[in-house]
Amino acid sequence: MRKDEEFSEWYNEVIERSELSDKRYAIKGMNVWRPYGWAIMKLIDQAIRDEFDSTGHGEVNFPVLIPESEFKKEAEHVKGFEGDVFWVTRGGFNELDVKLVLRPTSETAMYPMFKLWIRSHADLPLKVYQIVPVFRYETKMTRSFMRVREIHFFEAHTAHATFEDAEQQIHEDLQMNERVMRALALPYIVSRRPNWDKFPGAHYSLGSDTLLPSGRAAQVATFHQYRDNFAKVYDVTYETETGEHKFVHQTTDGMSERLLGALISIHGDEKGLVLPPAAAPVQAVVVPILEKGRQEEMLLEAQRLFLELRERMRVKLDDRDIRPGEKYYYWEARGVPLRVELGPRDLANRAVTVVRRDTGEKKELPRELLPDRLRTVLELMQVAMWNRAEKVLQDNTFTITKLEDARDGFNRMGWCGKESCGKAITERTGMSVLGTPFYPEPFDGKCIVCGEKTKQLVYAAKAY
Ligand code: ZN
Fold first, then answer.
1. Average pLDDT, whole number, for the chain?
2. pTM
3. In angstroms, what is the span from residue 318 Cα to ligand 1's centroid?
4. Which residues, other chains included, contact 347 with Cβ-Cβ below 8 Å and sequence gap of 6+?
């Protein structure tokens, strides 16, 4: 199946063939994670967990249900989510007095508790995160990992004494995001979302967007500055050193299984998945090529090789009694970064044949110091995959001066900052306004809609 011709079908086929998840479960958009898909997701979870843990966040686990009374407190937030949530209205045979909502995100679950946990300035900053499923009543066409109704979700929530402290948190979030995106080899841009598209209830929102091969932007992470908007509604206050009571300032950092969807889309090829070593449950597979009469000797040698490599990487020995060709196909579809073949000739040469999944490059390497050599190859691959994807992103970022020139990819253009001009961009091109670049990009030109002189740029793209 050609990726560039039939992207959607290609995407579904890759997931099916590599056994990541099964969408045949009887509820649309609630897919079943299969062992291999879950193994990749757990590596992504761990990368993110390491970031949160090392920056002083504590992991929590809140109930999945939120009472309607709490859910409906913040007006904008409710307006943004009410149409998207599942309700629990009955317990056994009884209608519930207070309806319950399956969390679409956890602000309204957490902040009543924050109110109880935060007493004084000494309790701040409060930084927590959880990795849990959230639920959205998605009515559009669903797609594995990209648009689902049960979402594997990462959400960090913080509370600070001041707005400036909360701003610092957003900077820390962006640094974490950079490290996670590097590990997944997913280049991205960070934009400050326009006001009409910020998170419901936020003071402002930043989005981290990557570019899919279809030319569409996929939001893979968001960072929200809430200021004291939610604190006022949930009455989350702290006592200052001088005995004053003040509202906390809050932020959130959210990511989802979409990271995996983007990873599949950007790096996969005609043979299936291509995983960056950091996200590969199996980084190298040892395939002995058995010669009649020497099976035992070769298997023994393959076993020895496997044990050597196991010290330095996640490795698998494929000693199944099937043809080598079948094994190649199987592991290629699963995106395993390195295939280490051990044939009779390799054995004689004290060598192995190593095939890189990302480039297909085939090389004979000596057995001496093989674990070190392969570690180096894995590190090179990790960087090469990022670099290739980043080049694609750059090659598909266009600066345009007329809306008629908009095309698939990231379009950057002058914008005067007026909402009417921003909305005109969407109306006339069908693109979403991703926002102004968070990391300043010098510009001197005109608003693409009204022609007013401006130094401000805006990014727009068709959004997934
Ligand atoms: Zn304008």
1. 96
2. 0.96
3. 61
4. 297, 298, 301
